[in-house]
Amino acid sequence: MDDLDSVIAEMYDQVCFEKGQRPDWKRQAEIFAPDARMVRINDSGVFEFDQESYRVNFEAMIDSGEMPSFWEGELWRETRQFGDMAHVLSAYETRRSRGGEVMNRGVNSIQLFRRDGRWWISAMIWRREGKAVLIGDAPIGNKTV
Predict the structure, then answer these.
(1) Which pLDDT score, from 0 to 100, does residue 90 have?
(2) 14-54 residue pLDDT tens
(3) Are strands 118-128 and 32-42 parallel, antiparallel or unpaired?
(4) What span, in angstroms and rounded, lies between the C-alpha atoms of 43 and 30?
(5) pTM strictly above 0.85
(6) What pLDDT digit, counting tens, does each position of 68-83 carry?
(7) CA–CA distance from 84 to each of 7, 13, 73, 119 (Å)?
(8) Is CATH 3.10.450.50 what the domain over 4-128 is classified as, yes or no?
(9) What is the mean pLDDT of the chain?
(10) d(CA 79, CA 71)
């Protein structure tokens, strides 16, 4: 992916799936660097993953019936770029399907680097809204430095 917008769009799209389907994990490997780290934070705690453990955790939620389908879309984004590195703060909402009721909202903090003319995600940490943590509806801006 040679531009940041394409990488972020693919990051959201590759995890979405309809009932009876599964995420396309090959697509994830095309945008995340081989040793990328992922951290999920919610009111239940902090959960750390590499790509394989994230896939196993996600698949377990599908297999248990907890997540029969899933759609995640971006609400707003702030981008800070300095040469071949970038930080993207991206708010999202999750639904069972694209047109379904909103289940959750949160913010992804995404670290990226550019190598050989393309962008890779090296780390991502996300925080779902909770009892004491809420995001606003208005964007805080889309800035590049």
Answers:
(1) 96
(2) 999 999 999 999 999 999 999 999 999 999 999 999 999 99
(3) parallel
(4) 31
(5) yes
(6) 999 999 999 999 999 9
(7) 14, 24, 26, 8
(8) yes
(9) 91
(10) 23
Three-state SS letters, 8-76: HHHHHHHHCECCCCCCCHHHHHCCEEEEEEEEEEECCEEEEECHHHHHHHHHHHHHCCCCCCEEEEEEE
Compute CA 54 distance to the chain's CA centroid, rounded to the nearest angstrom.
12
Are the beta carbons of 8 and 88 closer than 8 angstroms? yes
Only one residue has tokens 């750390």, namely 48
Q: Which amino acid, residue 6?
A: S
With a CB cutoff of 8 Å and minimum separation 6, the contacts of 51 are: 28, 29, 32, 34, 36, 38
Q: From 64, 123, 71, 63, select the one nearest 94 (Cα to Cα).
A: 71
Q: What is the pLDDT of residue 99?
A: 87
Report pLDDT digits (tens) over 84-99. Answer: 999 999 999 999 988 8
Please report, for the chain, the start and end positions of each structural domain, with discontinuous segments joined by +: 4-128
The one-letter amino acid at 33:
A
What whole-number distance in Å separates Cα of residue 60 and Cα of residue 41? 18
The residues, ordered by sequence, that sit 6+ positions from 49 with a Cβ below 8 Å of its Cβ are 37, 38, 39, 40, 57
